[in-house]
Amino acid sequence: MRERNKRERWLFSLRRYFAFFLLMAFVISCCMMLFLNELSAAAGIDLTEDKIEYAAKITFVNVVFLSLLCTIIDGLRRRWMVDRPVRQIVRAAEQIMKGDFSVRIPQLSGIDGAGEFQVIADYFNQMARELSGTETLRTDFIANVSHELKTPLAVIQNYGTMLQYPGLTEDRRLEYAKAVTDASRRLANLISNILKLNKLENQQIYPSVSTYDLGEQLCECLLSYEKAWEEKGLEIDTDVEEGVMADADEELLSLVWNNLFSNAVKFTDRGGRITLSLQTEEPDVIVRITDTGCGIPPEVGRHIFEKFYQGDTSHATQGNGLGLALVKRVIDIIGGDISVDSEVGKGSTFTVRLRRTRDGKA
């Protein structure tokens, strides 16, 4: 391959030389003819055949020399300003093809600072950084998925085996069957969330925008967790402004509210409080969901929207670390913003900021 490339470069140099030769021969011949014609007409010099033949030989030598000189100069220019940065880019591309995403193209040097090649190198380095981050995420994602799948599968396998033991009491049988059911439900939720997140990240889900009552949707989603909050004796406070219309995808936003309410109920201790607030703050609509749960440490808060990240491992069996990743992706798709304000031991407040309807109605 290298020998072939070397031969091609040599042939290209030869073609370039002949191109310069023909160009210089034409230009210099035309110039010489005009010069001699004007000189003979102005000075009255008689151009004999010998003089013309001598001038032609001198011109031919000059053409050969100037063509060779221009070819050498152009070759050096191309070697320094074109071939050198191209080789650096090609070598880096070969490393990327081999799976080495840590490769970077150094600052290119040249008479004009490498010009457009430096722009290409900058974009190449940015692409390599993005690919490196994507590869890290993919590796972590596979590792986390494998771990998350193993846990419920191990539970199902172990309790399924114990269910086969003879002489089980009815209470034990129900206990083991419930453990199998809970693990299979967790496994189904995990797979469902993975599929949803994959569709969202690959933009296979497109927002279907409609105008609807946001307060009504929030209350309906909150009421769907009534049994869960009553079992824990939680106090529910609501401050929902009436008539607030949302201009967004109703189904996608329901994923956001369901995940936030589910987390609020899950992380709030028995006898705690959950507060729902919906207010308009021009030009946006603000939704705040506050709980009096365990709170989020600052180092955990920086990662809570990442896939499979679970800051509170004591509740790991109740989730799979994909809920807030789904929430963040949905909010990004619909053009909103989400933030969290939390204090350890006092609780957390998730704030979602959405655009108002096009007509600006409250």
In DSSP terms, counting alpha (H) and pi (I) runs of 4 or more, how many helices? 9
Radius of gyration: 37 Å
Question: What number of structural domains do the residues give?
Answer: 3
Shape annotation? elongated
Query: What is the fold named in CATH at topology level of the largest domain?
Result: Heat Shock Protein 90
Task: Please give the largest β-sheet.
Answer: 5 strands, mixed
Q: What is the N-to-C succession of helices and strands? A: HHHHEHHEEHEEHHEE
- Give the CATH architecture of the largest domain: 2-Layer Sandwich
Report the CATH C-level class of the largest domain: Alpha Beta
Please indicate the percent range of residues in DSSP E strands (runs of 2 or more).
Answer: 5-15%
| Side-by-side strand order of the widest sheet | 2-4-5-7-6
> How does the helix and strand content classify structurally?
alpha+beta
The level of helicity is 55-70%
Secondary structure: number of strands: 7
> Can you say what the CATH homologous superfamily of the largest domain is?
Histidine kinase-like ATPase, C-terminal domain
Unreliable residue stretches: 308-320, 358-362
The end-to-end distance, rounded to whole angstroms, is 69 Å
